[in-house]
Structure formats: C-alpha cells, structure tokens
Design brief:
This protein has 142 residues and is mostly helical. It is 82% helix and 0% strand. Helix 2 packs antiparallel against helix 4.
C-alpha cells in the first residue's frame, strides 16, 4: 500500500518555515526600530485581510457560538495574539533569533507543566520524553 503523507510533510515544513520567518522578520523590525505593537498589529491585520475571504462564510454560520463565547475569545485574543506576540517581538530587540526560537520551543514544557498542576490532563511517558529533549536542546545551546 502506498503512503500518501507527502502533503502532510510539506505542510509541516511550510509551518516551520513560516514560524521561523516570523522571528527573522521580528529581528529585522527591531533593527529598523519598528515598535513591537505596531508590527504585531500589522501582522494580524494583513493576516485577517488574507484569510477573511476563506473564513467569512463559516464565521457567519457560527456567529451565535462566537457571541455566546465572546469573553473567552477576547481573553484568548489579548493573551495570545496581543501580549504573546508583542513580547516575542520586543524580546528580539535584545537577543538573537536563535535564542528566541529556542525559548519559544519550551512552550510545550510549560503547557504540560501547567496542565499537570491544574489537573487538566494526565502526562504520559512520550510527553515527558519530549519535554526532556526540549530542555536538553535549550540547555546545550546556551
């Protein structure tokens, strides 16, 4: 039987390239002294313009769900899009791109740690192994 995972591999590679490109653009913006909040705003503004034609019908269909959970969406928007991305761009003023990428790679560690503290999800052996590998990578680089 033929394995048709090529599209998945391609999309994973593109995701990695786009994500790392975000850090490179953030560092370049710091060199040209573009404020982190402005960079963040324009990044999401243009992403919204590009994605809107593909998502507008689904947003209209789910408007009742969106309005019922508007508080949750506002909290997610403030913490993830506004604060998190602006802090990433701000930190690139003071560090190299590779250091920023290594620090961002510890996010799964924090997710697992906080999830286990709040008893949201049980941690399995594979997750612990991934956390250890991630921490080893960060420690040995620095």
């Amino acid at each position: 039987m033929k394995n048709n995972n090529n599209l998945a591999y391609l999309l994973l590679i593109l995701t990695t390239l786009f994500w790392s490109g975000n850090f490179i653009v953030g560092k370049a913006a710091s060199i040209y002294e573009i404020p982190p909040f402005s960079l963040n705003f324009y990044r999401w503004f243009f992403a919204c313009l590009i994605l809107m034609p593909f998502t507008i019908n689904e947003l209209i269909k789910k408007k009742n769900y969106i309005f019922a959970n508007i508080g949750f969406f506002i909290i997610l928007g403030i913490t993830s899009i506004t604060i998190f991305n602006s802090i990433v761009y701000y930190s690139l003023y003071y560090t190299q791109v590779i250091s920023g990428v290594l620090m961002i790679s510890t996010i799964p560690v924090w997710i697992i740690f906080i999830s286990s503290l709040l008893n949201i999800e049980k941690t399995n052996v594979f997750q612990i192994f991934g956390v250890i590998l991630s921490l080893i990578g960060v420690v040995f680089y620095n």
